Amino acid sequence: MKSRITLVFALLFCAFGLELHAQSRLKMELYGGPQLMYQRSADQVRNPPNYHLGINWLYGVKEDFQVVLQAESTRANFNYDWYPTFPSTNPSYKAFYYDSFGNFRLGLRKSWEKGSKAFFIQPNVGITVNNFFDFSVADSTSFFMASKESRIVGNLGVEAGVKFYTGRRNYITLGIRHQSGLNSLNPAEVSWGIPQQSRILVERSGTYTGLFVGYGIDFKGRTREERADAKLEKLDQKTVRRERAWGDGMYLSIAGALRFRPKSERVPNLEFSHISGAYQYGIGYTMGHFSLESGYGRMVAFNHIRIPEAVVQTQRGYTVEAIPLRLRYHRNLGDKNRLRVGASFAANYTLATRGLTNIGQGGGNGNGFTVYQINSTPLEQTSKGKVFFNAGLFGEIPVFNSGKVTFNFSRNFGSPAVGRENISGMIFGSPVNQELTGTLDGWIMEVGYKIPIGRFFR
Length: 458
Known about the structure:
With about 450 residues, this protein is mainly beta. It has 2 domains: about 1-220, Porin, CATH 2.40.160; about 245-455, Porin. It is built from 2 helices and 22 strands.
């Protein structure tokens, strides 16, 4: 039944296709997104979100009004507890049930155009179709017969959203949609046991609320003059974006870094064991030759203890959170916004330390002699609320005309003691019991990306 209705819709589109294209009023939209379907049950079931996908055909009837034909697939599901040895509840398993509905709607869209964007609202009326198998018990053993059935109910809905136009008359849509079923569909039924010992019934009517993102295609196309204008406009946009990226204003940034600790911390036969990672998210403001930025960052740290002819890492890869406050001074080289260089200085305020664990480890010389056997126990951390510093040089180059890739080479200094722990055990037969800490000092090699906030609010 659902396939026949879809075919009818397709034939209607084809029948009017040539005329609509000639009149340059036809548009098509493909969309999808998450949705939450409202279902009712007296049983203990969970109703997680799922998805809906669809296609719209739009025909302009007036300047700001369009008739819309919609065809959509919506997935319904619920989770429940399954007891295979019912009435015993042990063991129990998490199980799920899913079904798909077809929604076919007729809508009227009203749009309010504003430059490169447009707001729209669209009421809809239509039907919801569910194809299902109707099982009936043939005897009291394990034989079943099923017939394929369809259930159709009416629905009413409304949706609203925003269109963002691209350079080829096409556009991207973002919006929210709600549909209300006017009657009940067939209930979803789950049962187990022969003969039937337990059953779950879930009532649904096709009512849901969803978010969607879509892409719209305008079949009108562009004239030669419009293509020439679009090319000039694109060049102008590139220039404007470059100026925004290199000019004054607020920006967002993200960066990843490698921190190089002294080579004396390197574990034998592990070439890069003295290198650890870091990342940072930030927001900043540029004015003239200066920038001020702050955000949130995490740095990975290690603790180590020296034993004769070896280095042992006692805490491997814990993280220290920090809030940076960075001041940058820069100069542009040349007049085409191709390269920016400068110096930076930052103060970092430390927050929590995470990832410290109780760990035991040992090692021998291969001849049955135990070189060390130690246990690490995290202690109360005293590094929170401390400040350490960073200073260095940086360079920036443009990318995608609207952002910049940044390269920063700097050094951390003045780090507080982090990763406080107690080490106990034996090293070369001698007892050891001492407090051990790590540091955040070291050379930093960082790569990041900046984009002006104005890029999102044209």
